[in-house]
What does this fold into?
Amino acid sequence: MNVTRGFTGRPRVPDPGLPPGQYDARDDWPVLSAEVTPDLDAADWTLRIDGLVAEPRTWNWEEARALPASTYEGDVHCVTGWSKFGTRFRGVSLDVFLDLVGPGSTATHAVAYSHTGYTSSLPLADLSGGRAWIAFEYEGRPLPAEHGGPARLLVPHLYFWKSAKWIAGLRILDHDEPGFWEQNGYHARGNPWQEQRYSGD
Amino acid sequence: MTETTLGPGPFVPPTRFAVPGRIAVGGDAASAWRTATLTVIRRETPHAATFRFAVPGWAGHLPGQHLLLRLTARDGYVAQRHYSIASPPDDAGHIELTLDRVEGGEVSGWFHTVARPGDTVEVRGPLSGFFAWPGNRPALLVGAGSGVVPLMSMVRHHRSRGLRVPLRLLVSARGPRELIYADEYGAETTPVFTRGAPAGVPVGRMSAAHVAPLVADAPPGGWEAYVCGSNGFAEHASRLLVEAGQPVDRIRIERFG
It folds into this structure.
């Protein structure tokens, strides 16, 4: 341990909800997109799921909003160090979409991509089983554009760069294909509880 | 079942590609923590100071990259933050960080009130190739407040290497006293003062009047634009760039937060 002379840090408040190396952002919700926030109307938004699936499909806004909705209430964790507790997103579970397209028996991963071309890669297991959503609302209001509105991917158990803003689609694959940050040195999976920030962690 | 046949090669999303491409920064992202010894503290403004470190074995960086810095308390408590690197790559074995004093900030607070030459901290990096500038393409740099820090690494690199490639810097500050690196700017830089300025210098937010002429005057091949600052500033400045005709896929944004 390399102790820093004179450093005491914040008062220790044991918080079992805080993954290692994270701090509580409280009311802040930092925006860290690397690209220009797009002007994307809900009317122009679409979501496509294709690749290794029985039936590729595209949903427009009304079709996606007509699917059975559900809510995520819990925490989100950003690789830059902040965590946000008690967030409430409303959307449609990704299980609903995946059931409609039918991933093939060899499918193992997906690339999520944005209407800006941003990509993130995820194991299919992290996108199913009630752990991922297409989110339309935050705290009861339309998701703000700078946070990915009209719709973003939400995979709250992984670092938030996986939760692609302005989600445009998922390509289902039989291998892991690194996305934008994964190609820029970030970890392939990004589990905050194992502090998988960078490649090699 | 009928599965879609996948073509060879990596998947490219069928969208207008608005995320600028990766910039190669060389092989292994340095994953090791290194000890950095503070050698000099230099005051820049009433709220910002530069901290110079000797880092034996520093892997080298490109202008615009950042690092992860951590402080460890006696009981093992660790605080870590990302900071942009202010110094150019040629400053062998040394790096400089310029830190704002953040209200209640446990890390910046330690730097501004406790740190003195000889102290050691730990750093890991350099990180992320996305906001890097290798010096090989015309660069239009737009920053506000301490958002100028990674851009200054680019300006210093341009200068120390005597690069001919065009480079311009638009930097916004509340006033001349808050302008970081004020004595170092040359003809490449236009400061914008938002709250107060010397007599005869206009005061106001960065506007199309600042951005549009630079975009219109793009060199052959166009600018690579680098925007750095708070999210509010980044949203404002990136919109000005797009409205002035800068292609969205050539705007790289580093937002503080």
Q: What stands out?
A: Chain A touches chain B through 57 residues (CB under 8 Å). Chain A is about 10% helix and 30% strand. The longest helix of chain A spans residues 94-101.
